[in-house]
Each structure stands twice: as C-alpha cells, then as structure tokens.
Amino acid sequence: MKKGVKKRKNPIIALAQIAYYDTDEKHNVTKIKKYIRLAKKKGADIICFPESSVHKTDFLSFNHKLIQEIREECKKNSIWCIVDDDMIIKGKVYNTAILINREGKIKGEYRKISIMGDSPEVQAGKTIKVFDTDFAKIGIAICWDLNSSNIFKKMKNKGAEIIFCPTYWKYEARAHHPMTYEERHRKREFITLKSLIMTRAFENLFFVALCSPAKNAEKDLVPYSAICTPHKVLKEIKDKEGIITAEIKLNEIGQLEKLYKEAI
C-alpha cells in the first residue's frame, strides 16, 4: 500500500427480513427499531429493511413522526439505515427508499423506477442515484428494478460498490404452468430471484444485498434475502424472520476489475 493512503475498514452490512403483517399495529416501527438495535449489537454499519416496510396503509412524508422515530433510533445507535415506503413528495406518491445516516439525518432518497405491483397512485421515479457514506459508495434499487440491467450498470458507472435492494417480491401465477402446485411456483421463483441478484453482482463486479419481508399469509410472496459477491452468496435467509450480516471486503472489487478489465 502506498504511503499516505489510508486502508479502508471492511464494513459490516445487515439485512432485516421482518414479517410485518403479524401485529395489530398499522405500522412496523417498533419492530424496525428493535432490529436497528440488534444490527448495532452485531457491529453493523448499516441495516436495510424490505420494501414498503414502515406503514401498512398510509402514504408518508419525510417529516412523518414514524420516520422521525426511525431517525432517532439510528442516531442513538450510530448506524446507517435504509427504509422504504410510499412517500408523498411535492404532491405525488413515489415508492421511496430513504437513506438515514449515523446522526439520524436523511442523507438521500431513491424513487423506484421500474413500477410493477405498486399502488395505482404511485409514480415512477426517473433518477438513478449513488450515495457516499463513511463506509462505502452505495446504490439503491427497489424490487422490480432488479429486472433492469441498465439501472445497475449506471450505478456501477457512478462508482457504486454495494447495492441495496429492498423488495417485496411475489411470483405471478400466470407465469407458471397452471397445473403445477403453488409451492412449486415459489421454488422456481426463489431460483429466479437468487439468479437475478447474483447476475447483477457478477456483471457489474460489486456487492448486492437483497432484503425481502418474511413469509406471511400471502401465498405468492417469495421471502428471500441475501448478501452476495460477484461469485458467491455470503449470507442468506429464506422463509423465516431474522437478521443476516456479512463483512464486505471492498478491495475485492478492484482485484476483480483488474482481472476482468476487458469485460466492464
């Protein structure tokens, strides 16, 4: 290593695969705060929650009291956090991922571009973003954005090292043979989802962290979360509620870029 060049610490990232239709409350903030504390105990620099994970019914605003509670919990635990929900922005509704820093400040937001399965009121976002944090340069995609290799390529071109993808992935029964069982549909969709995140990681040579909700009453939900490198899955969780963490060795990106320099 050259003199004067400070070696970066390998960050630890956490994904919370929470079940959020299992309480009488209309929101999931109590559970979100619990998992923020748990992620901190595990030494995580950031925790990501699934798509549409804050409130079950209402559209929110950035200054909503529930968002304020989450921000305060991040500040108490000195941890970054990504939460996602339908947000009202300048009179329009967007499926929005909010990035909160260790001081509890909102450092950025990303609006889902590839709309599918969203509320009729939700508008499509237009801007691909990459954010500077104190542990890495990160990008955010939401659910069906996974289907767009172009979105991930543009984040790579902006210098992204880790992509977080909150999702609420469900299979389309119409896409499967009508005479097969629902459980077979889910098994196929698990394979599809895992293949997508590994492909996005490999073709762009960065890390991808997908966070889904845990299994609930919806039979077509695909409860799978994973943290993967361009070559392997570091950690994964399927069906059940829980948290996974992984150390991200950022220097692997440069090594792979040198190895595959003609391919990127």
Q: Which features would summarize this protein structure in a list?
A:
264 residues, alpha/beta, Nitrilase/N-carbamoyl-D-aminoacid amidohydrolase, 7-stranded mixed sheet
Radius of gyration: 18 Å
Distance between the termini: 25 Å
Q: Could you tell me the CATH topology label.
A: Nitrilase/N-carbamoyl-D-aminoacid amidohydrolase
Q: What's the number of extended β-strand segments?
A: 13
Percent strand equals: 25-35%
Number of helices: 5
Helix content: 25-40%
Query: What letter string, H or E per element, gives the SSE order?
Result: EHEHEEEEEEHEHEEEEH
CATH superfamily: Carbon-nitrogen hydrolase
For the biggest sheet, the summary is: 7 strands, mixed
Number of domains: 1
List the helices and strands and how they pair.
Elements: E1 12-17, H1 29-41, E2 46-48, H2 65-77, E3 80-89, E4 92-100, E5 106-111, E6 122-123, E7 130-132, E8 137-140, H3 149-157, E9 162-166, H4 182-204, E10 207-211, E11 224-228, E12 233-238, E13 242-247, H5 251-259
Parallel strand pairs: 1-2, 2-3, 4-6, 8-9, 9-10
Antiparallel strand pairs: 1-13, 3-4, 4-5, 7-8, 10-11, 11-12
Helix pairs in contact: 1-2
Give a quick precis of the structure.
Helix content is 25%, strand content 27%. The chain is of the alpha/beta class. The protein has one domain: Nitrilase/N-carbamoyl-D-aminoacid amidohydrolase (4-Layer Sandwich).
Characterize the structure shown.
Helices cover 25% and strands 27% of the residues. It is an alpha/beta fold and 264 residues long. The protein contains five helices and 13 strands. Helix 1 packs parallel to helix 2. Strand 2 (46-48), helix 2 (65-77) and strand 3 form a beta-alpha-beta unit. The protein has a single domain, classed as Carbon-nitrogen hydrolase (Nitrilase/N-carbamoyl-D-aminoacid amidohydrolase, 4-Layer Sandwich), CATH 3.60.110.10. The strands form two sheets. Strands 1, 2, 3, 4, 5, 6 and 13 form a seven-stranded mixed β-sheet that branches. Residues 1-5 have low confidence and may be disordered.
